[in-house]
Every structure is written in C-alpha cells, then in structure tokens.
Amino acid sequence: MAFAAYNEGDKNSNMNLMRTGDSPNEVPISRTHAHGTYWSKSEAKSWVPFLFMGTCLLYCARVTLPICVSAMAEQYEWDKKQSGVVLGSFFWGYCLTQIIGGYISDRLGGAKILMLSTCAWGFVVIFTPVIVHQSSSPIVLLTASRFLMGLLQGVFYPSLMSLFSIKVRESDRAFTSSSVCTGSQVGTLLLGAVGSVLLHRYGWESVFYFSGLPSLLWGVCMWKYFLKGQDQIISLESLGNGLVNSKNSKVPWRKLFQSTAVWAVIVAHICLAGTFFCLLSWMPTFFHDLFPESKGLTLPKCGR
Predict the structure, then answer these.
(1) Which of 7, 21, 100, 131 sits between 20 and 30 A of 123, alpha carbons compared?
(2) Is-above-0.85 flag for pTM?
C-alpha cells in the first residue's frame, strides 16, 4: 500500500505518514516522538546496511590480533603467558566503557559516538605495526594499544542501541538490531578467511592494514554522508548540558536488578561471551600449534 505525500501546508504534517485508502478518522502513523524523529523507510534502507558494515569491520579489527599473535610470538619470542596478556588486555579496556558508553550516547547522540570511536580504533589498528616495529619493548606498547582499542570499541554496541532507541520504532527494533549485529559473525568469518591468506603471503602487518583502513574509511563516510559533515567535536559545555538534562530521566535500577529476567539475561550473556571470546582468542593459536604445516590457503593443495 503506497504512502500519501506530506501536506506541506501543515507544519507538523511533514512528520506524519498516512497510508492511502485509510479512513480519515484513523490516527496517522507519526515519525516524531519525545526524543526525536524515527527513520523513514528510505533512511532505514541506507542506515541498516551501513551499520551492518560497521559491526562487520568492528569484528574484523577485533579478530586481527588473535590471527596474528602466533606469528608475532615467533618473531618476538613470546611465550603463551605473554601472548595471553596481550590478548586479554583488550577485554580489560572493553569492559570499562560499556556503561559509560551508553550513558554518554544517550546524552550526546549514538551516531556521533559511533563515528568518533570507529575513527579512533581504526587509527589504533593501522598504527599498531608501526608502534610494534619502532618500540624496544613491543609487548608493552602492543598491550597498551589493545587496552586502548578495548576502551574505544566498548562504546560501539551501547551507542548502537542508543541510536536504535531513538531512530527505530519499537515494533521494528528487534529485527533491525539482529540484522545489524549479524555483521559481527560476517566480520569474524571474513577476516578469518582473508586474514590467514594475507598473513601467509604478506606478513602479519598486512592483516592490520586490511582491517584498519576500511574502518577509518567507514567513519569518514558516516561523517560525510550520514551526519552531513556536522561538527563532531564534543565540547565540555554540551557534555555538561547532557548530564544536567539526564537528571530529569530516572532509571529504576533497583526494580531492574530485582527482576529475574534481567539476571537471566546477564548470566546467559556472561556464559556466551566468556565461551565465545575464549575460542575467538585462542582458536587460531590452537590450529597454528596443532597443524604447523597449514599456512593460509595453499592453492596447489586445493586441486590446482
């Protein structure tokens, strides 16, 4: 059923959608709400695939070090304990910015935080090989860069959920969220396949460039085409205004943490994330140690 054109003579009617053929007594579907405006269908068709690419690149960058850590450990003579410290440093940073990321995104806008954080961790990934090669103690700076990357990526999903809460209707929110978050699995598969080939043929540095450069490009495209080149500098004044305005909206924390459903979700997520990231971090090392003769994609052995 087609949508009727907006009535430009009414100041508020350009925010309402009326289906043709509907009764004039029916209430039109409004795009406005207390905190902003929902995406139109055309806007959603642009935003959802773009955010899907963002989550894909998020996990491409996250999987980079687990794929490369065995080669780097051989080059710099790290043992398993040192490799574990480097791999685990990401999650120390990641867990620190989950709540604060959502809090700031609700006050300053999820899209702005997404763009800034992606550009920042894109730079970190790109310059990781340079930092490691130029340092006399590469494991220290690599651990620090992974910790910083965890801090920056920790705000991604909270910002994403904040954006959806404002721009996506509640009836469409589950489908939109699942569609966008599927990019995490696609990114893991993509870098797992392409990264092993790059690692074997061009060295571990190429894997970092392959995941970092597109992430930086994604952030620039978001600023230019989706945020329309808006000023993305977060001033202390805007941050202060957001914190002052937040006093008017109270979250029922006690009621939430007294809910068995909330605790069920928390426990389930801890179990899922703990298992998934343990496998994600150490599976490449496991295969590297167990099958040392397998090097990326060896085409002569594939029938050529």
Answers:
(1) 100
(2) no
